[in-house]
Write a structure and sequence with these properties.
- With 759 residues, the protein is an alpha/beta fold.
- It has two domains: 62-330, TIM Barrel (Alpha-Beta Barrel), CATH 3.20.20.210; 411-758, Alpha-Beta Barrel (TIM Barrel), CATH 3.20.20.210.
- The protein is built from 27 helices and 24 strands.
- The longest helix is centred in the N-terminal third of the chain and has 25 residues, at 32-56.
- The mean pLDDT is 96.
- The structure holds glutamine and zinc ion (ZN).
- Residues 431-751 form the Cobalamin-independent methionine synthase MetE C-terminal/archaeal domain.
Length: 759
């Protein structure tokens, strides 16, 4: 039995803290002895974490080496291969490594993007034809020796070349096939260097999740690459996850790898009889991913044994190695420190450490049946699963019957009619100016919320603090002359958590941190049961804000699909059904807001795109229910209530038809960094509803000038008419400072005035 990787951030986020204090000391001009001191601390923390995490793996076949990282494993591989962007040529060592991740005086950071359909972000490699690769295998070698010296049997975890290439970009516009030969050369040099220092017969697990996407232009190289790796004397396991990978399996069974890792949790098609037969005939080991590395529920051992039965009818038992479905990186460390959570719900959860225990138990039952030594644990597992199934906490008849009787899921009138009524009722001009919702989250604001949470101040003090922030926000927006105002979201720490905390069916961990990127961790809400909304969640603040102004106050909600995609979701109900329940919660809120006199309501779907399946063949199904859920929420809006949505990306080419079908009256999107290029798709498909393409990038502290925004608006007007356009920043402003936000928004309004004057 095996895992594919363990979370590295530490039970108490020790790595995060050590990294951040090192970065603070290493900041330009930092005292060098302080920097050295913090570096030593960081190295020690890292070493201690590895040692501790390996100790949990002592009963497994191997401990995983090189799953540790100071930032990200894709970045580690770039560094090991010498895939260094030219702008960082003056740097070396950790300074170089962290500059690539975070930017430095030498240049901007490398791009970061999501690792498949997870919320983990990797650093995108920048390949180019003239790149001079330099191999540096030190990190892998050191960690390998470290594990050996502790008496463990190490397995090196390494990102496979196809996944590395597939997730990279080229900075010189060359085709991937043009950079492949040199990259392959370098990758093999790295492997050779591992063999020459660590000896032949080292075991390497190559992560190739890219294979789950199906055939691509590089599939014809798979056999040749992995055969050559075997020739170096390396024993290789090729592992795929997050979906099934039957096409790659077909090829890999004929290559010289020793084992194949497949995900049987998220890739049910891996159970395909032909694939299993091919594996059995090849005599290769099958690393069967059965313990879910993506979710946090106690495994149902009976159902896992069922799958193992199916597999072992075809694949001989001694070839089957039970494994986690993917790295445990995507789940929190351990539930040991959850002292506040409801005990019953807590008993249903399994984080990384507990999952290793489940692997051991499953292995024992699979090999020996239920015997004295595993009987109690097996029964305990059974009863946890039974309890959960029957628990009253999960089932809510009222919610279920509402879902069963759900009928109208579309707005009554078509957009053409709605917009006439809305334009009349709301009276906003062409190129109406607005923002995406949040205003700066100041340290004072965070302190206020913290104090209230801890009970250090009463609700009166808290509420007056929030009210005073809202007052300032409204006053500022009126002063600069924005057309549609927002309350600024001062009461929210996070756009999902804020709603989850007020909905039934959600629970929050105290310490369930999951690495998102680098030192940044998130604590996803846990949806454990039927969800409903006991009472209004935002009306109090939005109506207060509206009472301060004659202008239109836009109400802010997070959409059902985004709430779903940023949470750990119950696994006893289909995601689409969980999402449907969430969409009713949001529908209820929209209904209350409009009854309270709010005329524009924005339903943010920042994570709509994240839920897209990895396999093309499954996209349609996702699109259809995600779309339906958004519409369940928005269809309660009356004809005169204007529904906005916001999405944090710019690439709409693939999904434009779905966006159109969502039928939001106004959609705001991220386009500032791409001029008007990305807007063109809206024109091309004849998108008729209104659009607010971001006119400046909020991710940087830079203040855009009037002229710059003016030009940007002119560009937009080349694509869509002014009657269809709204003017707003790219995204919410909560990460910015007031001294950046104020002049930026003022310039935005002035730029619009300039365009309007010209007519
Ligand atoms: N309304 C949210 C905000 O302004 C939207 C955030 C987001 O799209 N990520 O912060
Ligand atoms: Zn956004």
């Amino acid at each position: 039995m095996n895992i594919i990787g363990f979370p590295r951030i530490g039970e108490k986020r020790e790595l995060k803290k050590a990294l951040e204090s090192y970065w603070a000391a290493a900041k330009d001009g930092g005292d060098t002895s302080e920097k050295e001191h913090k570096l030593q601390e960081l190295l020690k923390v890292a070493k201690d974490l590895r040692k501790l995490h390996w100790s949990y793996q002592k009963n497994l076949e191997n401990v995983v080496v090189n799953d540790f990282s100071f930032y990200d494993n894709m970045l580690d591989l770039s560094y090991a291969l010498g895939v260094i962007p030219a702008r960082f040529n003056d740097l070396k060592g950790l300074d170089l490594y962290f500059a690539m991740a975070r930017g430095s005086k030498s240049g901007v950071a490398c791009e970061m993007t999501k690792w498949f359909n997870t919320n983990y972000h990797y650093v995108v490699p920048e390949l180019r034809k003239d790149l001079q690769y330099h191999i540096n295998a030190q990190k892998i070698v050191d960690e390998y020796k470290e594990a050996l010296s502790l008496g463990y049997n190490p397995k090196i975890s390494l990102i496979g070349i196809f996944t590395y290439l597939g997730l990279s970009k080229t900075s010189d516009n060359s085709k991937k096939s043009d950079v492949f030969p040199n990259l392959k050369n370098a990758y093999f040099k790295l492997l050779e260097s591992l063999v020459s220092t660590l000896g032949k017969d080292i075991l390497i697990e190559f992560h190739e999740p890219i294979f789950v996407k199906g055939r691509d232009e590089f599939f014809s190289h798979i056999k040749e690459v992995y055969d050559s790796i075997a020739k170096l004397g390396i024993k290789s396991i090729v592992t795929t996850y997050f979906e099934s990978s039957n096409e790659a399996t077909e090829i890999l069974v004929n290559s010289d790898i020793v084992g194949l890792g497949l995900d049987f949790v998220h890739g049910v098609d891996n159970l395909n009889e032909n694939s299993l037969k091919a594996i059995a005939n090849s005599g290769k080991k099958l690393y069967a991913g059965l313990i879910d590395g993506r979710n946090i529920w106690v495994a149902n051992l009976d159902s896992k044994l069922n799958i193992l039965d199916k597999i072992s009818i075809i694949v001989p038992k001694d070839l089957i190695h039970i494994s986690s479905s993917c790295s445990l990186l995507h789940v929190p460390f351990s539930k040991d420190s959850e002292s506040k959570m409801n005990k019953e719900i807590l008993s249903w959860l399994s984080f990384a450490r507990e999952k290793i225990g489940e692997l051991e138990l499953l292995e024992s039952i699979f090999r020996n049946g239920v015997i004295d030594s595993n009987k109690d644990a097996y029964n305990a597992n059974k009863s946890v699963n039974d309890n959960r199934k029957k628990s009253e906490k999960i089932h809510d008849n009222a919610v279920q019957s509402r879902i069963a009787n759900l009928k109208i899921t579309t707005r009554k009138e078509p957009f053409k009619e709605r917009i006439k009524v809305q334009r009349k009722a709301l009276g906003y001009p062409d190129l109406a100016t607005t923002t995406i919702g949040s205003f700066p989250q100041t340290p004072e604001l965070r302190a206020l919320r913290q104090k209230f949470k801890k009970g250090e101040i009463d609700s009166k003090a808290y509420e007056s603090g929030i009210e005073s922030y809202i007052k300032d926000c409204v006053a500022f927006q009126e002063e600069i002359g924005l057309d549609v105002l927002v309350h600024g979201e001062p009461e929210r720490n996070d756009m999902v958590e804020y709603f989850g905390e007020q909905l039934k069916g959600f629970v929050f961990s105290q310490n369930g941190w999951v690495q998102s990127y680098g030192s940044r961790c998130v604590k996803p809400p846990i949806i454990f049961g039927d969800t409903s909304r006991p009472k209004a969640m935002t009306v109090r603040w939005i109506t207060f804000a509206q009472s301060l102004t004659k202008k239109i106050m836009k109400g802010m909600l997070t959409g059902p699909v985004t709430i779903l995609n940023w949470s750990f979701v119950r696994d006893d109900l289909a995601r689409k059904d969980v999402c449907k329940q969430l969409s009713l919660c949001i529908a209820d809120e929209i209904s209350d807001l409009q009854d309270a006199g709010i005329k524009i309501i924005q339903v943010d779907e920042a994570a709509f795109k994240e839920g897209y399946p990895l396999r093309e063949s499954k996209v349609k199904e996702y699109e259809s229910w995600a779309l339906e859920c958004f519409k369940i929420s928005s269809s309660v809006a009356k004809i005169e209530t204007q529904i906005h949505t916001h999405m944090c990306y710019s690439e709409f080419n693939d999904i434009i038809k779905t966006i159109e079908a969502m039928d939001a009256d106004v959609i705001s999107i991220e386009t500032a960094r791409s001029g008007n290029e990305l807007l063109k798709i809206f024109k091309k498909v004849g998108y008729a509803n209104e659009v607010g393409p971001g006119v400046y990038d909020i991710h940087s502290p830079r203040i855009p000038s009037v002229d710059e925004i003016y030009k940007q608006i002119k560009l937009l007007l080349e694509v869509l008419p002014k009657s269809q356009l709204w003017i707003n920043p790219d995204c919410g402003l909560k990460t910015r400072k007031w001294e950046e936000v104020k002049p930026s928004l003022k310039n935005m309004v002035d730029a619009v005035l300039k365009v309007r004057i010209e007519g």
